């Protein structure tokens, strides 16, 4: 940015700077991103990585030997992940336009083109990555993403999961910002098997980022948004109480009873990745999913294609609004220093 | 096939017919494909489906209302599934050539092009489908695939999972045909949550198909094959005892001890989908995975790209040899009837 700001804006800019510092401080509370060595640098919890001559991020088709990761990714501040490869490409193109970056958004290329497991696009300070469906699929990507951010010496990174979900007592199209990611028994925990033993991890998410996202939704048209618990299951049919799978051994009443219990426990939507995302990214992360149907009213996703496409854009619009606000703070912060 | 066979081949053809009948009888023992109503027709275990006006197979972008499923899929006899979309397209093109079908294999189209969740190719009697990574991802596809085969009134279908895996005490490139799909505690079971309750399902697979596949491998060059147990985990890093994830809290010795226990329990490879595949498809199905490394010797997949590509073709070559044998039986069976 070349222009100088005028003095009347200086007070406002200082206020923005203070907000920025307060905001970024909240990200540093994460277990994954503690202040150790480098301030707010992305840290891994694995001492073995320091002694490895090369780290091959197999499922991303990247490696510390064949790629200059700090040069490629060192300026990343926001990571957005979602299940569908097409949707994450569309998001990358959308945020490119929203941030008014130079270059043609239609010409962005898939950084992981050496593999078809995931796709990845970098747009200024934003990384957009697909993760497939279910906890195991996103977990492989998150291990390699966190190592990538660590090797690239990224600092103060915020992560968002943008997804679709089944709503519990909400009108289709409602966006749910996750307060707690809970398991099938409505507990905010993630069970992980390590060498044959089951351990339990917390799935807390950042309350401040969640309420900031709710605030963002009120600044936008047509993005009905609530904060609520998100239930994460390992199965789309029996695990979510659907009556229309290849296997079903329970009644319509049994299903409704389970959904009512979930609702009473604060669950407002059901998806398949939030617990491991929260467990691995913790308080520097948010989960933002739109509901495609109200599960009290049915199991099949019957809305017309164009309606579903519009619903799926809502988490993208909300998160991009959030990112844009921070990005503008940051730009004004740079201007402030150039002014002084 | 227009030509008549000569009488000297007739005895051999009758023998082939008997083999075919014996072979296809073994498929009918499956829990999913019992002799009910239609002989050996693919059956679902969900009475609700009969009363549904439309069944939208959402993740396959197909529906009973918008697609004529019996016409599109009624002749399917073999279903091959695998994680990678590119690999399953390559398999479809490969089996097209192997079965010497008419048309250009380069021109096959993705039946699920309306979605990027899975891809699906039909080549004569063979369906080739991708399923992504992990139990939840393959489980969504299997629910919708089994419903698809049911709606299409398919009969006597055999299912194969073709995949990659980590080897346990085997040279890289070895193909493992699964005897039992076991969980992290080496038990042949799959835990499924239904309405918040954990139930356990058996993961038995067809022994005869497995031993027939072993026989096939002996008829081929350079497809080293063993029968062994396959451990299915929900995580690639901590769950499989890898030391190179973003999180690792155990030692090299702890890892080796776990792998030794797995080896002693008959585990010869580790992957991420076999238990739910076995639980849902049972005795009409086989799991055939190549090992990309020996986990006793490391965690990272370091072989050169061309070596890995060649390894990944091995399950495809083995299963296509198996399919070709049955397909030729079937063709000769047709000839036998036209002769009489």
TrEMBL record, chains A, B:
Signal peptide: none
Family affiliation: Belongs to the PNP/UDP phosphorylase family.
UniProt protein name: Uridine phosphorylase
Pathway: Pyrimidine metabolism; UMP biosynthesis via salvage pathway; uracil from uridine (phosphorylase route): step 1/1
Example GO BP: UMP salvage
Keyword line: Disulfide bond, Glycosyltransferase, Transferase
SUPFAM superfamilies: Purine and uridine phosphorylases
